[in-house]
Specification:
The complex is a heterodimer of chains A (382) and B (92). Helices cover 40% and strands 19% of the residues of chain A. By secondary structure, chain A is of the alpha/beta class. Chain A has 2 domains: 241 residues, 3-Layer(aba) Sandwich (Rossmann fold), CATH 3.40.50; 130 residues, Rossmann fold, CATH 3.40.50. In chain A, the strands form 3 sheets. Chain A has a 7-stranded mixed sheet, with helices on both faces. The longest helix of chain A has 30 residues. Chain A is globular, with a radius of gyration of 20 Å. Chain B has 2 helices and 5 strands. In chain B, the strands form 2 sheets. A two-stranded antiparallel ribbon of chain B has the order 2-5. In chain B, strands 3-4 form a two-stranded antiparallel sheet. The chains are: A alpha/beta (382), B alpha+beta (92). At the A-B interface, strand 9 and helix 9 of A face strand 1 of B.
Chain lengths: 382, 92
């Protein structure tokens, strides 16, 4: 393992390069663009043997790599925010057609009003799309998760989004350990599963009547649930192969005797980790659960780690209008009828809003006060 | 719940919209002509897929185009819907 100082975008591009992607299509969008540029440079410099397809929109970008993967190639693309919304139709096609595409999503707030700052609003809109959703705490996670995503996707024939936040992660330099190419080749052997065959022409995405449609959807859901077993196995194999420290479905940080747990995903995990460290020094029994996988939702793993806590503060960098934070809603559903702990969802950091130690402290105090509204997420730092 | 024997990737032979792998047609029933002389020509208009045509020898049903909706058999005598074997393992 060599160590390099790279941005999150560079880590994503490096992960895709190490996975030896064969077809790439993207449509430039901020803040994902530097990753795209880096991949194009790898191709231009001859470091990556990959077919780059120029397209006129994000919709076409995903459609182009869908063609590539149907022909059996290992495919990758990136996008964020408005681009992800534009490609939504194809996002569902890819999942229904069971194609193992890996896509980097550089989370950015959605318009309107127009914003270029980080939050999880874009990926939350794809909650039910049938893609496995991985989240990254830091640049090391981005590289590790991108490589692991190809193995997960190809084994389950289910696409994977690797989410990391714009600017906070995409444009921030961090030290990253890079695995050797030969070892990645051994970790990711390419097993082609083409749906198209020149000698036996076929049509894909056939019109399907009510006799068959539910079966296709049931099998798609079974593959998603299978990810709950496969993701930790792949992480373990990755750690063994590369001496890395990649978590499975989630990571429990200082949770052994915790009475209060923070639950979060994405860049805010790093802040929450520091918050836990500081308050542990003061004797407060607080811990952190970092979610690596949001879809499928790891209900059993969460229940196992949270069964003995009194308070849970869920940090959501997204808003589902009329409901609250998406993660808080999922968590409350997961614990329905099982316990009498307080689960408080807080919404913070929307559109690049503040989500530092001060805001986390407000959230934690709100959870432990009597002011918590049981069925709503509270807004912090408005 | 009874799971159907479907391929992983929803796909089928080219040229037919409603097929799955191994040339099995995604139809529960297919129309069969039982009496050419009884058929009402309105079926030429009513078939939503244009699957019924007329030649010198009589009416012809294209099973490449037919989705098995049964409108022809409902609208006209001389055509009957019959169950069709579907899927690689035989579902019906």
């Amino acid at each position: 393992m060599s160590k390099v100082l790279i941005t999150g975008n560079e880590a994503a591009a490096l992960g895709a390069k190490l996975a030896r992607i064969e077809v790439l299509a993207y449509y430039p969008i901020t803040p994902a663009f530097p990753a795209m540029e880096r991949l194009s440079k790898y191709i231009e410099d001859g470091e990556l043997n990959c077919r780059f397809i120029r397209v006129e929109s994000d919709h076409s970008a995903l459609a182009a790599v869908l063609g590539g993967t149907l022909a059996g190639a290992r495919c990758y693309t990136l996008t964020n925010s408005q681009g992800l919304l534009l490609m939504t139709e194809v996002v569902y096609h890819v999942a229904g057609l069971r194609q193992p595409i890996v896509m980097g999503v550089v989370n950015r707030a959605l318009s309107a009003p127009h914003s270029r700052f980080p939050e999880h609003g874009d990926v939350v809109s794809q909650a039910g799309s049938g893609w496995i959703q991985l989240f990254c705490e830091n640049n090391q996670d981005i590289l590790d998760n991108t490589i692991q995503a190809f193995r997960i996707a190809e084994q389950l024939r289910t696409p994977v989004m690797v989410n990391y936040e714009g600017y906070l992660q995409s444009h921030t330099l961090e030290e990253v350990s890079v695995p050797e190419q030969e070892k990645v080749d051994a970790f990711l052997p390419l097993k082609r599963q083409p749906a198209l065959d020149l000698t036996n022409p076929k049509g894909v995405n056939t019109v399907t009547g009510p006799e068959f449609y539910p079966t296709y959807k049931y099998k798609q859901n079974e593959a998603m649930l299978e990810a709950l077993k496969l993701v930790p196995e792949v992480a373990e194999a990755y750690n063994k192969q590369f001496g890395a420290n990649s978590c499975g479905l989630l990571e429990a940080y200082k949770m052994e005797d915790a009475e209060h747990a923070l639950v979060a995903m994405g860049s805010i995990v790093g802040t929450a980790r520091r918050y836990v460290d500081e308050f542990r020094k003061q004797g407060k029994k607080i811990g952190l659960l970092k979610l690596k996988v949001w879809r499928p939702f790891p209900v059993e793993a969460l229940r196992k780690h949270l069964q003995n806590v009194r308070f849970i503060t869920v940090l959501d960098k997204n808003i589902v209008y009329g409901v609250g934070g998406a993660l808080a809603a999922d968590l409350k559903a997961a614990f329905y009828g099982t316990n009498d702990m307080v689960i408080n969802g807080v919404i913070l950091g929307l559109g690049g809003g503040k989500c530092g130690l001060e805001q986390l402290d407000q959230a934690v105090k709100l959870t432990e006060s009597d002011e918590t509204e049981k069925n709503r997420s509270a807004w912090i730092a408005l | 719940m009874a799971l159907q024997n479907t391929p992983v990737v929803p796909s089928g032979e080219p040229g037919a919209l409603a097929e799955i792998a191994n040339s099995r047609v995604q139809r529960i029933n297919r129309p069969e002509i039982t009496d050419q002389s009884q058929i009402d020509p309105v079926v030429l208009l009513f078939c939503p897929e244009g699957a019924i045509s007329r030649s010198e020898s009589g009416f012809i049903i294209s099973y490449k185009l037919c989705k098995g909706c049964g409108i022809c058999a409902k609208e006209s005598r001389g055509i009957t819907m019959v169950p069709e074997y579907t899927g690689p393992a035989g579902i019906f």
